[in-house]
Specification:
By secondary structure, the chain is of the alpha+beta class. The chain has four helices and four strands, in the order ααββββαα. Among the domains are: 48 residues, no CATH class; 53 residues, no CATH class. The N and C termini lie far apart (91 Å).
Length: 161
């Protein structure tokens, strides 16, 4: 019984490995190479990191925008391909079009020359703020009387209906 289960398990593992190799031949072959390289580096006593024999293939350009809902909040997430180098992140080849749009927007927003005729024509003048002052005793009393009359009129309208 144990031997049969062990044989079934081995058969299943081999089948899964075969399917994985069919789906991603690069992953399975590179994983075996890394293991053998790791064994070689252990013999020397010093680890030099993972060696990258072939340059990475250009991945498909990803430019995707999704909307996620989290407790009544809508969040828009933009996913795009980037390249990583020592200088920092670089946008992928497909994103160059966005860079052109950004450059055009920056050209429109250049500093304008200041002239004495129209120094601040972009923004309208705000009206001057009225200085705050407390109400006098008489003003407060008048306000209370007005509110009382208003409430009395509303109460009569409710009773009248």
């Amino acid at each position: 019984m144990r031997q049969q289960r062990k044989a079934d398990l081995e058969k299943h593992v081999e089948e899964i490995n075969r399917l994985v190799k069919q789906a991603n031949p690069d992953i399975s072959s590179s994983g075996e190479e890394e293991d053998s390289e790791a064994d070689d580096s252990n013999d020397n006593g010093e680890w030099n990191g993972i060696k990258d024999d072939a340059p990475a293939e250009a991945e498909a350009f990803i430019d995707q925008e999704d909307e996620y809902i989290d407790e009544d909040k809508y969040t828009t997430v933009t996913i795009e391909s980037v390249g990583i180098s020592k200088s920092g992140f670089e946008k992928a080849a497909g994103a160059k079009q966005d860079d052109d749009d950004d450059a055009a927007a920056a050209a429109e927003k250049q500093k304008r020359e200041w002239t004495k005729e129209k120094p601040k024509s972009d923004r309208p003048k705000k009206p001057k703020k009225k200085k705050f002052r407390y109400e006098t005793k008489a003003e407060r009393k008048m306000e209370r009387v007005k509110q009382g009359l208003k409430k009395k009129k509303q109460a009569q309208a409710r009773k009248g209906k």
